[in-house]
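Q: My labmate handed me this sequence with no annotations at all. I'd like to see what the chain might look like in three dimensions before we decide whether it's worth expressing. Could you predict it?
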Amino acid sequence: MNTTTQPAQKTLPLSDAVQHALAVTKRGVDELLIESEFAQKLAKSEQTGVPLRIKLGLDPTAPDLHLGHTVVLNKMRQLQDLGHKVIFLIGDFTSMIGDPSGRNITRPPLTREQIEENAKSYFAQASLVLDAEKTEIRYNSEWSDPLGARGMIQLASKYTVARMMERDDFTKRFKAGTPISVHEFLYPLMQGYDSVALKSDLELGGTDQKFNLLVGRELQKDYGQEPQCILTMPLLEGLDGVEKMSKSKGNYVGITEPGNVMFAKIMSISDHMMWRYYELLSSCTLEELAAHKLAVEQGKNPRDLKVAFAQEMVTRFHNRQAAEDALTDFMNRSKGGIPDDIPQCQLAGAPLGIGQLLKQAGLCASSSEALRMVDQGGVRIDGEVISDKGLQIAAGEFVLQVGKRKFAKVTLSN
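A: Here is what I predict for the chain of 414 residues:
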């Protein structure tokens, strides 16, 4: 290890601007390590005029993002707006290792073709949050490929097995007798080496990335660099307000979904959860957020703020007109109206049972689900509630509705 003694650094005073930047940085975070060090980095940046280098590494394992994925990106944008250099690091090399973080089995590595396709889609979607013109895009294969076998072994010599086994998922798997492959130890080392290569001042990640981020900090010390600070962001709860946002759980808001779908989903979150979404995702300032909370305490309807937030998200990921159209569509639906733009389908086999009709129209996954929706009063034909599960639908044209958000204009023939 590098044992060179560094001269004591003079503590810089924290100006009002630095304290404001620190408050913005800390907004909604899970942890900022080490806060006093980061405050000094901010002060030094202000004094020298040299922006901090802020790194976010993402393995492009899936091409589609939801609002939960954008929590870290939103924090990057806040730091970008403070004038710092944000580095969007695409882990094309590490993706081919497979990160085991938070998993009890080895994640299969991706092919080069999958990585390239996902990376392209990932950055296009991330650019809806980040200022793409001011974002530095890097690929960790730039410095990882040239390492070669010799360099990889030398890097591996800088970290002990005992330190690796401090990671929670490794410990649990070892105790359970679940296999741990040697290559999995290389992942946090390679992610840490990215911080060395980029001379990172701050690295962001989810709470499940804390161990890997700390490895980067230790490796930087070993290479004689000033160690990065680390910032972890919490996992955003989904629309149910309980489980983390996930496509598999169906409680997500996809950032490429139609504007009216995004809007309606956001309007379904609870008034309490609304503040969590505001804190982690809105671009409103800390002062504006405090004013919103005060207004609600003084009697303002929280629904108005939910509308404002939903419009902000639709505008961000689509445009202002889409946000206005989504609001109009939502208001129309809330009054029992039928949206203008709904899918159309042509079916045959009349007369057709209501369960089969809803299934074939794609509004329910199965006839049994469709009949449950009828029981619950959630099915309408041309605006009229259907209560008869044995109803046979004759040939004709009509609008089917399931719940508040699912519609289809159906042409049914014999």
